[in-house]
Prior knowledge:
Oligomer: single chain
Amino acid sequence: MIKRWFEITATGPAETTEHVTALLIDMGSPGVMEDEQEGKKVLKAYIPSDSLLRSNKNALKERLRNYGWTCRVNPFENLDWLTKWKEHIKPIRISNRILIKPTWRKIAKKAGRIIIEIDPGMAFGTGSHASTIMCLKAADKLAHIIKGKNVLDVGTGSGILAITAAKLGARKVVAIDIDQEALRVARRNIRLNNVSKKVAVSAKPLDKIKGKFFIIFANIIAEELTKIASQLKDRLMDNGFLILSGILQERSHEVETAYKGLGFKLFKTYSKGEWVCLIFH
């Protein structure tokens, strides 16, 4: 029997691409294809008809509008689309030490290798987005500092950064997000990677988080990073490190200015395509 799908073509601003990708994956799309037209991002996803009917097309369009996106929905049929898609999902090598892989891929264990298990069929980042990759590279660079320290992950999404910090030897990791679906997914990924004893997941907003942290990750959009700059400073220990990502190239200067204005020094910059990751000390 042919499984029926809907093809979703969504168009909108680059800065909320990861959120919209997460939404489409959460609704059942095995993956999302990304393109660009006339300065805007175009995402194509395939959602099972039963899933979309339950969720309601109008509700989907309304959720996309909240991120500044529009979409078209068309029927689509394919016998082996999901199977073929899975065949093309490859492990992502972040460094000689860190590797991200989908749950169905088998990877040989190797001394010193850290494997992060992520199911791309679940919501939020799978590690393939440029902003996430740069955060992971930053974590790898600071691995010797992360070990034994307390870490905060602001806007945890899939929990991938919190999981990585735990596997790099962090003493304790707090992963926060205001999105309940993100928290559900993060908890599942944390269990999948056997780091539940080290990682605490919380729905508390940043200003309600107690204690201080030596490393703070915040992979969110530039506007939010600027807004919460003072709160991040309050949560950071003396001589600690901020790893900020989700920043478009054209917005990096305003983020840098905001944090330097609070006394931070720029330690390192990563860039990948149109995205930037800033490490402050």
